[in-house]
Amino acid sequence: MTLLDSILDLLVVATIALPAAACVLLALCAWFGVALSERRVASLVAVAFFGATVCALSSIVVLALLGRGAHVLRLGSWFAVADYSFDWCLLADRLSLPFASFVAGLTGLIAAFSRRYLHREQGFLRFYLLLALFGAASEVVVLAASLDQVFFGWELVGLASALLIAFFHERPKPVEHGFRAYVTYRICDVGLLGALVFLHHTSHASFEQAEPWFALAAAPTNDVATLGALLLLLASMGKSAQVPLGGWLPRAMEGPTPSSAIFYGAISIHLGPYLLLRAGPLFLQSPLASWSLIGVGAVTAMHATFVGRVQTDIKSVLAYASMTQVGLIFVEIGFGFHYVPLVHICGHAAVRSLEILRSPSLLHDQRHLEQAVGRQVARVPLHVDRLVPKALRPWLYRHALERGAFDVVLRSFVKRVLYGLRRLDALDRRLTRVLLRRSDDPSVVAPTGLQASHFAADVERDSDASRSEEQSS
Amino acid sequence: MTRALPLIAALVLCVVAVLVARCRAARAARSLAASCVACLAAIYVVAQLLAPHVAPELVALGDGSAVADQGWQASVPVIQLVVALLVVSFAPVATHAPRTLGVILASFAFSLALVACDDALLIALFWSAGTVVVGWEVRRLDRVCGSDCARPFFLYQGLALIALVVGTVAFALGAAGLGAIAWLLAIAIREAALPLHGWLPAIADRVPLGLLVAFLAPQPGVYAQLVVLQDITGGRLAEAFAIVAASTSVAAAGIGLVQVSARRAAVWLVISQTALIAFGLENVSVVGRAGAILAWHVMALATSGFLMTLAAIEARRGALSLVAASGCFARTPRMATAFLLLGLASVSLPLTLGFAAEDLLVQGTVQSYPVLGLAVIVATALNGIQVLRCFFALFTGTHVHSGEMDLNRREFAAMTVVLGILLFGGMAPRLFVPTPAVQNVPALRSH
Fold it and tell me: ipTM strictly over 0.85?
C-alpha cells in the first residue's frame, strides 16, 4: 500500500467521521444539559461539513493521482459470528466521491444558512443535531460498499427526516405529516432489508464478508436479479416519493425550510436514484425490473408535473417539481445511463434547494424584481397546458386537483387493513373476556387512578414521614 | 453446574427485598432499593471481572467439571441487575408501595438465581418461585383494589407451571420428547405467544408497570430454550414453534398498531419482540441464535426502559391515550428522547445494539426459514411504526402541559446507564455479540 493509498483511506474515513463526531458531540451536550451558544452549535456543524467537503474533494484528487477508477477501503469486521461477519467497507469511486462532496458541501451551506433562519428558535440545538445525523448517515449511504451499510445509513436518514418534518412539534399537522413520512419509509425499508437478505441468501453459498457493489453483477439468475431489483425499487420509491407512495412529500414541507431544502430538494430525495445507480448491474440483468423502473419514473413525472401546476402554495409546487425531476432520473437510470443521472441529480439538487430556501421570500423577491425591471413580470406561458387536447383538460384538471386520487386509494387500503386489525383485536378481547368470565372491558380501566386510590395511604404515610423528618431537622 | 456469583447476588437482592418491603415510607423504600441495587450492580461487575483471576472457585460451584460461563451467560446477570436498577429508579411511589418494590426485587433475585443454573430442575424451581412471588403480589392488589387481574394471571401462569412440572418429571423419566413439548408450552405461555397470550393484555392495564417489567424482562423461557431445550427440540417441533413465534411477532405488531391505550400498545410491542427472540432461538443457524441472544439482552434493557418511562409519564400525567398527539416535547425533552431511543433500540435502530441483534437474527433465520425470515422483517417494520406513533402521541402535538417534571436525578442516572450500554454497544457491538454461540451445552445436566 502506497502513501497515497493511506492518505485516501484517511480522507474517505474523515468524510464520514467529521459529521458523525459533530453529531455525537451535540448529542452529549443535549443529554447532559451543556449549554452551547447558537453560534457554537452552528459553527461546529458547519465546520464539520466543510471539513468533510474538503476531504471528499481531496479524495477525488488523490484517486486521480493514483490513476484508478475505484478504491475499496476495508475497515474490518464490526461484529462476527461463525462464518458471518458485518464488515465495514467503503467504496470511493467516480460515482460516490462527487456525490459525497456534494452532500457534505450542501449540508455545510445549509448549516451556515440556518443559523440566522432559526435564530432563537426553541429547538435550535435539536435541528443541528438532526442535521448532523442526517449528513453523517447520508455519507454512509453514499460511500457504502454494500447493501448492509446502506441500510445502516438509510434508516437513520429516514428517522432524521421524520423528526425534522415534526420539528414544530407543538402543532398537530407537522407531527401527523412526519409520522406519515416515517410510515412510508418504514414500509418501503422492508424492500431494502428484504433485498439485502435475499441477495445474501441467493448470491453466496455461505455468509461472506461484505462485497463491493460490483458483486451485484454476479446475481446467479435473472429471477434473482429481478426480485432483488424490484425490492430495491420499492425501497427507492418510498425514499424518493414516487407514485403511488409520494403523497408524503408535499406534506413534508411542514418542517423548517432549510431542512426541507436539503431533504426534499437535494439529498434525501435523491438517495433513491443513487441506490438504483449503485444497483445498476441488477437492473441491466433484468428487463422486467428496468421497465418497471422506467414505468414508475414516467408515471411519477407525468403525474407530478400536472399536479404541481394546480397547487396554490409555493412549497407544494416545488415538492411536485422535485417529484417530476426524480421521476425523470428514474427513467434515465432505467434506460441504463450512469453518469447522466448523476449530473441530473447534482444539478437538480442545487437548483431545487436554492428555490426552496428562497421560497418563504417569494413575494418579496417578486416585488424586488418588478421594481428592478420597472414593470409587472410576465406570467410564464402555458406551453405544456396547450399541448393537452381540449377534451382532456377538464379531466386532467380534476385529476391534478385530486392529486390523482392516490392518497384516497392508499388511505382506503390502510383503513381496511386497520379495520381488519381492529376486528382481530376485538375478537381477542372478547375471547379473553369469555375465558376469564369478565363482564367489563379491560381497556376502560384507568390504570393509575385505580392503583393511586389504593396507594394513597402509602403516599400519605410517606409524606407524613418526610414532614416529620423536616420538623425534626 | 451452578455459578456462584449470580447466586450470591440473588441472595443479597433477597435481603434487600426484605428490607425494602419493611420500609414504612414509599420514597425511602425506593431510595434504599435504588442505592442498594446500584451498589450491587457495580460490585457485581467488578467481581465478575476479578473473579477468574482472584478466586476461580467463585465462578463455578457443584461438580466443577464443566468450563465456566459461555460468554453470553456471564452478561445475563449484569443485564438483569441493570434492569432492576432501572425499574426501582423509575417506579412511581403512587403505584409502587414498599411491598410491591420488595416483590419486584425478589422476582429479580429469583431470575438471577435461575440464570446461575444449568440444571433443568433448578431452573424449573426458580422459575416457579418467581411466578409465585409475583402472583402473590398480584393477588394482593386484586384483593385490595379489585383490579381483577389475579384470575387471568393465575389461570395462564398456573397452566405454565403445571406444564413445567410435567416437563421436568418427563425429563427425569427419560421422556425427552414429552418434556420438551411441555416446556415449550410453558415457555409459550410465559412469553405470551399467540394464542396463549391472553393473560398479558388482560393484566397490562391493571398492575403496576414495575411489577410487570420484573415479570417480563428476565425471560426465563429464553434461558430455558438455550440451556435445557437446545439439544432436544429439533425437526418438526422446532419448526412448529418457529412458525408460532413468527406468526405471533407479525400479528402482535399489527394488533399493537390499533391500540388506543399506551400501556396496551407497549405490551403488544413486547409480545412481538419477545416472539422474535423465540423464533431466532428455534433455528439451527448459529448466527440466528447469536442474534436471538443479543436481541434478548437488548430487549431486556430497551423494552424495560420503554415501559418504565411510560410508567414515569403516567405518574406525572395520568392514564395515557394514543388517540391524538397530546404531549409537549419542550417540557420533558430528556424523557422524550430516552423514550424514543429506547423504543427504537428495541426495534433495531442503527447506532444501537439492537441493530447488530436484528442483523444477526435476520441473516441467521433466513438460512433456516427463508419465508419466515420475511415475517421478522415485516414485524420489525411495524414495531418501528408503533414506537414512533407512541412517541408522537405522548410527546408532541401541543404546547399545553400539566407542569410535569422531566427526568429527576435518580431517573437520569439510571437512564444514562441503560442508554450508555445500548449506544456504546451500538458503536462497538463486537464486545456484546455472543461469539462462542450456543452449542455443545449438554442438555439436562442433572440427568
Answer: yes
Residues B354/B347, Cβ–Cβ less than 8 Å: yes
Of B27, B205, B318, the CB nearest to A442: B205
How high is the pLDDT of residue A98? 92
d(C-alpha B347, C-alpha B326), whole Å: 24
Which residues, 6+ apart, have CB-to-CB distance to A36 below 8 Å?
Answer: A26, A29, A44, A125
Nearest-by-Cβ selection for A201 from B351, B370, B429: B370
The C-alpha angle with vertex A12 and arms to A10 and A14, in degrees rounded to 5, equals 65
Instruction: Calculate what percentage of chain B has a pLDDT beyond 90.
Output: 46
* A189 touches B381 (CB < 8 A): yes
A458 touches chain B (CB under 8 A): yes
Q: What is the pLDDT of residue B58?
A: 58
Three-state secondary structure string covering B369-415: CHHHHHHHHHHHHHHHHHHHHHHHHHHCECCCCCCCCCCCHHHHHHH
Q: Contact at 8 Å (CB) between B252 and B265?
A: no
Instruction: Name the band, by pLDDT with cuts 50, 70 and 90, for residue A181.
Output: very high
What distance in Å separates the CA atoms of residue A260 and residue A149, rounded to the nearest whole number? 25
Write down the H helix ranges in A33-144.
38-66, 96-117, 124-143
Cβ-Cβ contacts under 8 Å for B52 (sequence gap 6 or more): B59, B68
CA-CA-CA-CA torsion for A406, A181, A257, A156, nearest 10 degrees? Answer: -150
User: Radius of gyration of chain B from Cα atoms?
Assistant: 20
Determine the pLDDT at residue A176.
Answer: 92
Mean confidence (pLDDT) of chain A: 85
pLDDT digits (tens, 9 = 90+) for A111-123: 999 999 989 888 8
The pLDDT, as a whole number, for residue B5 is: 86
Q: How far is CA A73 from the centre of its chain?
A: 25
Which among A155, A190, A424 is the nearest to B255, CB-wise? Answer: A424
B147 touches chain A (CB under 8 A): yes
Q: Is-contact A183 B385, C-beta < 8 A?
A: yes
For chain A, percent helix, then strand, then coil, each to nearest 5? 80, 5, 20
Rounded CA-CA distance B226/B206 in Å is 32
pLDDT at A61: 93
Number of helices followed by number of strands (H, E) in chain B: 17, 0
Interface residue A85 vs chain B (CB under 8 A):
no
Tell me if B388 and A179 make a contact (CB, 8 A cut-off): yes
Q: Mean pLDDT over residues B110-125, rounded? A: 90
Instruction: Say if strands A70-81 and A84-93 run parallel, antiparallel, or are unpaired.
Output: antiparallel
Residue A385 has pLDDT above 50, yes or no: yes
Confidence of residue A293 (pLDDT cuts 50, 70, 90): very high
